[in-house]
């Protein structure tokens, strides 16, 4: 089986002193048809400019993150073209455009409506982001056969799918690739995560997602929201976007009130307040 890797520097000429080559994505529209022969272009886009570029390129440069030359599989019949342990994902109801087999580093996407043997760029790119989430190649005992990834396993489906789609959209926006005008399958999840990311920071979220640093992120979340973060995740998982976002506002208000209380109770300036006896003297 052949494998392909993404070069560490896809944006400039490797020759010393050569002028940098201006990056141009291989596709410009999220709704463009994508077939199995376009897999290498998806990797080019993933490694391209975005707010998450340095995290993605680090994950993609690891030896364990190599992928088969034909890692993208566009399937029309789930029962015959998808491994048995993955079929239940497509039978779970709702919109499911694809899934990944983390064990074999393979992306499976359904033929998109209106197409014969292709999917849409945005759907495929979303699944490719999943592919480079931690663990890149799981070990025995680390994951079940259907391995959703460390971040999603810890924080739930809404957080995992929401962050994956936000990363996908950030890549597309940065590179001038338009969103597909029709489907928004992860819309509610992304709304919640757009409230969560600014609170705890892109770096902490990206490190947890791509490198498995979920304990560090969990510590931040508990320190600021206590056990309340779980109520946010539960509401988002249940599809109650309004309740999840409302809970975030409540938790942030409570956090601000605690900070104000600490400030009010803290010392006034660098010197102690003079006693009445010192005033008399």
Question: Which descriptors would you attach to this protein?
Answer:
281 residues, mainly alpha, three-stranded mixed beta sheet, two-stranded antiparallel sheet
Describe the structure.
This protein is mainly α. It has one domain (3-214). Helix content is 49%, strand content 7%. It has 13 helices and seven strands. A three-stranded mixed sheet has the order 4-6-5, with helices on one face. A hairpin with a 4-residue loop joins strand 5 and strand 6 (106-110). The model is unreliable at 7-17 (pLDDT under 50).
Question: Could you outline the blueprint of secondary structure elements for this entry?
Answer:
Blueprint: E1 3-4, E2 33-34, H1 39-47, H2 53-61, E3 67-68, E4 72-75, H3 78-81, H4 87-90, E5 98-101, E6 106-110, E7 119-120, H5 121-131, H6 150-155, H7 157-174, H8 187-200, H9 202-211, H10 214-225, H11 228-237, H12 241-265, H13 276-280
Parallel strand pairs: 4-6
Antiparallel strand pairs: 1-3, 2-7, 5-6
Assembly state of the chains shown:
single chain
Number of helices: 13
Overall residue-averaged pLDDT value: 86
Domain count: 1
- Major sheet: 3 strands, mixed
Structural class: mainly alpha
Order of helix and strand elements from N to C terminus: EEHHEEHHEEEHHHHHHHHH
Give the strand line-up of the largest sheet: 4-6-5
Rg? 23 Å
| Bulk shape | globular
Instruction: Report the sheet-strand fraction.
Output: 5-15%
Given as residue ranges, the uncertain stretches (5+ residues, pLDDT < 50) are 7-17
- Rounded to the nearest angstrom, the distance between the terminal CA atoms is 90 Å
Q: How many beta-strand elements?
A: 7
Helix content: 40-55%
């Amino acid at each position: 089986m052949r494998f392909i890797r993404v070069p560490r520097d896809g944006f400039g000429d490797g020759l010393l002193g050569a002028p940098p080559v201006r990056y141009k994505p291989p596709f410009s529209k999220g709704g463009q048809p994508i077939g199995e022969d376009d897999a290498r272009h998806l990797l080019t886009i993933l490694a391209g400019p975005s707010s998450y570029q340095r995290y993605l390129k680090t994950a993609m440069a690891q030896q364990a993150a190599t992928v088969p030359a034909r890692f993208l599989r566009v399937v029309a019949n789930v029962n015959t073209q998808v491994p048995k342990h993955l079929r239940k994902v497509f039978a779970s109801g709702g919109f499911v455009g694809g899934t990944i087999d983390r064990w074999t580093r393979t992306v499976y996407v359904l033929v998109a409506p209106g197409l014969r043997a292709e999917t849409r760029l945005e759907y495929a790119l979303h699944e490719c982001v999943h592919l480079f989430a931690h663990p890149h190649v799981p070990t025995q005992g680390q994951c079940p056969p259907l391995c959703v990834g460390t971040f999603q396993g810890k924080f739930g489906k809404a957080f995992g799918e929401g962050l994956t789609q936000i990363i996908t959209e950030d890549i597309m926006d940065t590179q001038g690739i338009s969103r597909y005008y029709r489907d928004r399958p992860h819309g509610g999840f992304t709304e919640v995560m757009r409230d969560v990311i600014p609170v705890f920071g892109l770096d902490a979220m990206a490190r947890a997602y791509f490198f498995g640093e979920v304990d560090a992120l969990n510590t931040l979340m508990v320190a600021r929201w206590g056990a309340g973060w779980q109520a946010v995740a539960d509401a988002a998982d249940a599809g109650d976007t309004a309740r999840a976002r409302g809970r975030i506002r409540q938790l942030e208000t409570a956090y601000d009130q605690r900070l104000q209380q600490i400030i009010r109770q803290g010392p006034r300036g660098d010197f102690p307040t003079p006693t009445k006896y010192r005033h008399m003297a």
